[in-house]
Design goal:
The strands form 4 sheets. Strands 1, 2, 3, 4 and 5 form a 5-stranded antiparallel sheet that branches. Strands 9-10-12-13-14 form a 5-stranded mixed β-barrel. With 233 residues, it is mainly beta. The protein has 2 helices and 14 strands; from the N terminus they run H-H-E-E-E-E-E-E-E-E-E-E-E-E-E-E.
């Protein structure tokens, strides 16, 4: 989690003057801009990211009926990272209206990057990763912000040192591999019976796999419970 989000607003002189002489019966520009401020602030507070934003002034000729209810805001394009934001503001009062304001947003977030290169299928450990602050404008939508999301995972393909990690690049490790000798364990009523066997398929934790009992030759299905361990009923 990064430090508490910060916001810097720019109020050009023309906007300040327009707000100062707000006309009775019309919605003040300052209240509309403040609603945009609050929406951007809320978005970044939820993410725990550092940011700066400049809300662009409204057209000084704009005259909207005064809203008898609190203004509502929305993001017409969904979640945004940084750059130019379009923020919708609407009134649901007796004389409803909707407008769109603009805000230029800059932000940064700490992300998980590879400290060392990892081969395809390689297990990622704590020493392989580092946290680095990145500008949101240069990031895509898929990136990791918690080391726990990467440690203990394996790389789907070879990754170079310095790579920004995403969920798509990683997968859960296989605890059982086809052709590997495994322990087959049956549990019932507090008793355990174990025997050796051969895995007939790869398996991640919780997956069902077929195994062959090396004593009886019987093929059964079980659940992968740990490295080289399959539980059967």
């Amino acid at each position: 989690m990064s430090s508490l989000a910060r916001m810097i607003f720019a109020f050009p002189l023309c906007l300040a003057l327009a707000a100062a002489r707000a006309e009775p019966g019309y919605q003040s520009h300052a209240s509309i801009v403040e609603s945009i401020h609050q929406r951007v602030e809320s978005e970044f507070r939820q993410r725990g990211q550092d940011y700066q934003a400049e809300v662009l002034p409204l057209d000084p000729r704009l005259r909207l009926p005064e809203c008898g209810r609190p203004l509502e805001t929305f993001l017409p394009q969904g979640r945004r990272e940084a750059g130019a934001w379009s923020v919708g503001v609407r009134c649901e009062g007796e004389r409803p209206w909707t407008i769109y304001g603009r805000a230029n947003v800059r932000g940064s977030v700490e992300v998980v990057v590879l400290r060392n290169a990892v081969r395809s299928g390689g297990l990622i450990g704590p020493a392989d990763i580092a946290m680095m602050k990145k500008d949101l404008a240069g990031l895509g939508g898929d990136y990791l912000t918690d080391p726990a999301q990467a440690v203990g995972q394996v790389a789907r393909r070879g990754l170079a040192g310095g790579t920004l990690l995403s969920a798509e690049q990683l997968t859960v490790p296989k605890l059982v591999q086809r052709g590997e000798r495994v322990v087959i364990r049956a549990e019932s009523g507090g008793y355990q019976i174990s025997s050796g066997g051969e895995a007939l398929a790869d398996g991640q934790k919780g997956q069902r796999v077929r195994v062959r009992n090396e004593q009886s030759g019987r093929v059964v299905q079980g659940t992968v419970a740990g490295p080289g361990l399959v539980l059967v009923q």
